[in-house]
Amino acid sequence: MLPFWIALQFLSSLPVRLPGMPEPAQLGRSLLFYPLAGVVFGGLLCGLDAWLSGAPLLLHAALLLTAWVLLSGGLHLDGLADSADAWLGGFGDRERTLLIMKDPRSGPIAVVTLVLVLLLKFSALLALIEQQQTLALLIVPVLGRGALLALFLTTPYVRAGGLGQALADHLPRRAGWQVLCAVALGCVLVAGWAGLVGLIVAALGFIGLRRIMLRRLGGCTGDTAGALLELLEMAVLVAWALS
């Protein structure tokens, strides 16, 4: 179960402590457990949603979104902010884009992007609470973290060395595809038509965003992976609220 704990430590702010530095093979296998980490996220969000039952709707949605952000420690939002700055400031140049992504400072485009994404997530959560469609709280985190597994399965990692390279190099690919198939089937079985809609939206968003990464960078980075997760979660939440 060590790969699962690695995945949970890397993807969340939960108090998970590992006995030491994992081996590269264990890091690669941890990607297989990303969707399961999404199940943990979703379960906690569903529990909070049940506890907030009867609270004012705006406060209910705001607390759910706050918990969602805190559970991930803002990790993926940071990647989204860095990617937004780099895509605008890179002017289509690969090396300039990669350099800007390493800059810890955030520019105006990063702030605007974060505000818009969080606003859309909040609005979608509010609509889903009103519609009593909060099963999305379980499915969406699973799809988002499943997308990270799909990204590393299909897309070169462009920064040599580091954690991301170890993940990409040691990912068991056959098992990865099996996990993705199980995720897709599970979403449809659990959520029915809404789960299928969410799966289609996530797949289409994944294809589009992956194409953009390949065109600019020739692959992905940790920051673009975080941006992918945040944008797909937002898109599926909005689609679910509208369906």
Computed CA radius of gyration, to the nearest angstrom: 17 Å
Poorly predicted ranges (pLDDT <50, ≥5 residues)? none
Distance between the termini: 37 Å
Q: What fraction, in percent, of the residue positions are helical?
A: over 70%
Query: Please, how many domains?
Result: 1
Report the total helices: 11
Q: How would a textbook summarize the main sheet? A: none
Q: Mean pLDDT, rounded to whole units?
A: 94
The H-and-E topology, N to C, reads as: HHHHHHHHHHH
The total count of strands amounts to 0
User: In percent terms, what proportion of residues is strand?
Assistant: under 5%
Class computed from helices, strands and strand pairing: mainly alpha
How does the overall form come out from the CA principal axes? globular
Task: Give the SSE layout.
Blueprint (H helix, E strand, L loop, with lengths): L1 H10 L12 H7 L3 H18 L5 H16 L2 H15 L4 H8 L6 H24 L4 H19 L7 H8 L3 H45 L4 H21 L1
Helix pairs in contact: 1-2, 2-9, 3-4, 3-8, 4-7, 5-6, 5-7, 5-11, 7-11, 8-10, 8-11, 10-11
Characterise the protein shown here.
- The chain has helices spanning 2-11, 24-30, 34-51, 57-72, 75-89, 94-101, 108-131, 136-154, 162-169, 173-217, 222-242.
- The chain contains eleven helices and no strands.
- Helix 3 (34-51) packs antiparallel against helix 4 (57-72), helix 5 (75-89) packs antiparallel against helix 6 and helix 5 crosses helix 11.
- The chain has one domain (31-242).
